[in-house]
Amino acid sequence: METSQVSHLTQLLEDAHAVIKYQNSELTSLLESKSQELEELLGNIDQIIWYINSQTLSLQYVNHAINAVFGFTKEDFLTDPTLWQQRIHKDDRLLVRSFFETLIPGASQEICFRIHRANGELCWLNSRIYHNEKLDLFVGITSDITQSKLQSEEIAFLAYYDPLTMLANRSKLKLQLHSRLDHSPLLPFCLIYIDLDNFKNINDTMGHEIGDQILIEVTRRLREMTSDDQLISRFGGDEFVIFLNNSDSVYISDFCIQIGQIFKAPFTINDVPFFLSSSLGISMYPEDARNCEDLIKHADTAMHEAKKNGKNQFVYYHSSMQRAIHNFLHVESLIRDGLTHDYFELYFQPLINAASLTLQGFEALMRLPHPTEGFIGPDTFISVAEKNGDILHIGHIVLQQACDFIELVQRQYTEPFYVAINVSAKQLHQVSFAQELLDYLKIRAIDPSYLKVELTESAVMGNIEIASTQLHTLKDGGVHISLDDFGTGYSSFAYLAQLPISTLKIDKSFIDTVCDIDSHSHIVIAISNLAHVLGMSVTAEGVETEQQFNFLVENHIDTLQGYLLSKPITKEKILYSLTTSTPFFLPEKALVYTI
Ligand code: C2E
Ligand code: CA
Ligand code: CA
């Protein structure tokens, strides 16, 4: 190459270099201004934007947002590129490391982990991270999700725990049971359903605050006697369910006895001692059921059986209890049919004056003639109706039909008579019961002396204050009162003398054996004397034989009722007898029945 050529080439190279140099500085300043712009932009957003070396995980870049979240400056992190790792909660470090190890290049993925802020506070972070393989970088955007995490934890807590006692709730127990059944379907276990006896009374009379404190103390005592593999849950109110990882009946019975023991000491709240006991029902897996809903239901059923048997005891579930429930539900549906289709019908059993052997009145007894199920007696449906509240509705029907009957008989029969209706405890304990009854008689224009109310001793003595008010209202309104099934309950003589009762009705069980058992004949005579001393009359029900009849007449029983005289019969039969003067009660020698 010639010298001139070389120098030309050198010149060209120098020019090119100068051009490149010029362009480079232009580019650098362009780049610098762009990166400043970017920095300003990124500096104003809340999320942390960063990238780290994908091999060493050392921090290469981070925006200012890291400041507010970690409590360290951006510069702190850049001077010590591993600082961010040191702030990760120790339990989450492995999680974060394996996240980076498994992150697929080109894809972005999310991770949640905890860090400690500079002041030591725990903080939840959510990062979306991208692996740029070409640049050897992990690039990420991170946000502080502590607030929403806490909220969702609180929601999760409320969803699965009872805030008063901090015990697991029904949902949590079910969750645990489901997982137990999924993972170890062959391992047996049992559930114990606990219901506090008479807790409602304390809650109602002493207020919910005292009730809450008692529940907290019950929880404390239960916790003290249980171990980690026994889950205690609260099912709301005063109901607890314990999951026992055991199916040995000796162990379970011991455990239940221990539960009984923790109720021995009084629950002292504000220096006031409260005495409680508990009723327990036990269901076993897999014998009693194979799914958790049925197991809970069966334990509950057994608990109700414990209540029924007198409370303060434990009862193992048995399939016969389920049958009882089915029966209950069946009768309940028959009652509904009866109410919707007007099937209920009162029958009337004559009450005979023992001295004059004349008709004195009738006891109204309810029947449910069902078109497909046949004739259903009160012994089947009254107890169910009392439990589910339908007795109030049935009670109205009784009153209506009794009034219809009184009107009908009055047209045929001019002598005084009365119709005795049976009233159950639930009706009597309705505050407005007596007044509503009197109001109804007024509307129907029926003289109250035509109606008598039969109440059992237990209905009256069960809530003597309410009963006493109701009885006085009835008496003042002119309605007579008879104490039914007398001798079987626990009447206090002091109350008996004070209550406005006009008749004691001796329970049928004494009459049944009045001629066979000496003590029963003595009781009948004693009740008769007691009634007369207190100015009351006395009725004997269930008179079936002439022997009984003679005994009762001889011993000054005022009124007789029983199959010997007449069974309960329809109003049509009674009206037919009254209009045709046909006797409808026996024995015929006792019949001095005239219109
Ligand atoms: P209760 O009030 O003690 O009624 C007397 C029961 O004895 C009636 O049974 C009656 O039919 C029956 N009885 C009367 N004399 C004899 C007899 O000589 N021998 C025998 N073996 N039984 C006799 P019923 O009608 O089956 O009523 C049973 C119970 O159902 C009644 O007992 C009463 O407690 C209740 N009940 C009936 N109707 C009503 C009602 O309308 N309301 C309420 N709350 N309870 C009712
Ligand atoms: Ca009765
Ligand atoms: Ca009776």
Would you give an account of this structure?
There is one protein chain. Strands 13-14-16-17-18-19-20-21 form an eight-stranded mixed beta barrel, surrounded by four helices. The chain has a five-stranded antiparallel sheet with strand order 2-1-5-4-3, with helices on both faces. It starts with a helix and ends in a 15-residue tail after the last helix. Strand 18 (480-486), helix 19 and strand 19 form a beta-alpha-beta unit. The longest helix is centred in the first third of the chain and has 41 residues, at 3-43. Residues 589-595 have low confidence and may be disordered. The chain contains 23 helices and 21 strands. It is an alpha/beta fold. Helix 12 packs across helix 13 (378-388) and helix 16 packs parallel to helix 18 (464-477). It has three domains: 48-149, 2-Layer Sandwich (Beta-Lactamase); 164-317, Reverse transcriptase/Diguanylate cyclase domain (Alpha-Beta Plaits, 2-Layer Sandwich); 328-580, EAL domain (TIM Barrel, Alpha-Beta Barrel), CATH 3.20.20. Residues 363, 422, 454, 484 line the site of one calcium ion. The site of ligand C2E has 23 residues, from strand 14, helix 13 and strand 18.
Q: Any idea what the CATH superfamily of the largest domain is called?
A: EAL domain
The amount of beta strand, in percent, is 15-25%
Average the pLDDT over all residues and give the rounded result. 90
Report the uncertain regions: 589-595
Associated small molecules? ligand C2E, calcium ion
Strand order, largest beta sheet: 13-14-16-17-18-19-20-21
Largest sheet: 8 strands, mixed, barrel
